[in-house]
Amino acid sequence: MTERPVVKRTARAILLDSAPDAAPGTPSPPALEMIVIKRTKPGEAPYWITPGGGMEPEDTTVVAALHREVDEELGAKVVDVVPAFVDTVSHSTHHAAHGVKIQHFFVCRLASMDLGRRHGPEVDEPCGTYEVVRIPFTRAGIASVELVPPSLRAYLDANIEGVRALLADDLG
């Protein structure tokens, strides 16, 4: 099989945050939520996607693209950025020859978010709606929405405990 050229690279956040505290005296650790964007385009069924997007010429690294995209789409800052998953899919546009898109998924923790600071094409010239939502970071929570791409949904279903461990204090 011949190698296909990489025509696009994206950075996406598996963005986790502590859920509001459980009832007082509950011994379990705080539940985690995943912050996703519910996309609704005219004439199409809604779907949910992780914050992020394509690398731009000014991005020096994929992680720099991640920080820029999270700032644009959520007005957010993230910490504890750890590579988690890479997805390779066929991709072609009217600008680029047929090749592949490499999607880099990073698990990270929300440091701050101010939706009033959102900016960029999704905010300035939206195609449909971009609703920021929180879902429980559990198998049931992930299964409750149409999270795309399907490969990410399958990865999280198979590895949810491992993804949580990527943010563990003892990771190093």
From TrEMBL:
Keyword Hydrolase: yes
SUPFAM superfamilies: Nudix
UniProt keyword list: Hydrolase
InterPro entries to which the protein is assigned, alphabetical: NUDIX_hydrolase-like_dom_sf, NUDIX_hydrolase_dom
Signal sequence range: none
Single GO molecular function: hydrolase activity
Pfam families from the UniProt entry: NUDIX (PF00293)
Keyword Hydrolase belongs to the record: yes
Domain Nudix hydrolase positions: 7-161
Family: Belongs to the Nudix hydrolase family.
Protein name: 8-oxo-dGTP pyrophosphatase MutT (NUDIX family)
Originating organism: Streptomyces eurocidicus
